[in-house]
Amino acid sequence: MIIIQSGKPVSATCSISPGLLTFSAQVGSNQITINSNTNWTLTAQQPGSWYLLKEQGVPKILPISSNGSHTYDVEVQANPLTNLREVNLLFTCNNNTQSINISQAGQINNPPQSPCWPTPVVTDKRHIVIIPFDVQIDINGSTSLNFGDWIGFFYKDGNTEYCAGQGEWKGVDLPITLFGDDNLSNGKNGFLENEKFIIKICRVGTTQPIDVTGIFLIREMEDTLKKIYSKPMDSVELSA
Predict the structure, then answer these.
(1) Among 57, 119, 205, 217, which lies 20 to 30 A Cα-Cα from 178?
(2) How much is the pTM?
């Protein structure tokens, strides 16, 4: 007589984690882990050469069909673009599908900055100054702005001058946003109402600003700088 005793059925185990991987724009790596006791597949919804899966240093080409538990290194190349890029991996096991999102941030384009002074503090109080392409120039005998010159507008906090707005000259009309004090921090971080503009020019290829004076055409919401000339700063003719 043969006696056969059946065992307790083993339930399928299927999981993958984490469900989300995020990377900066630089080269990076992280891991995904599959816990399973049955067959499964891993596919990519979007093809791409910027990411790569490796297992114990060996590159793996998607789709992957395997079984059991595995850990994969996810490596991404540097993102040269400013746009986010992403891929969804689909893990299918025991007739169920899970999605794993892998995303990589784009490059942050740092705005150009004058070599003569620090970047202004951005506040919610703003005023526009327009420097037209035909602005009159008389700076120490020079009658023109050079491509790459910087124009900065400064306020005083005590005896120290701080830039509250700047722009790089490109030979066309140049709008410059000036920032006002927001009254939220200790000390000033922008112009006060009716405070005089202190104007400086940073010539291309230099690191020392030149103090100048401006003559303005006044409008309600913005001002147009009609002339820049080198005279003592106490002769500035417009208030914020």
Answers:
(1) 205
(2) 0.53
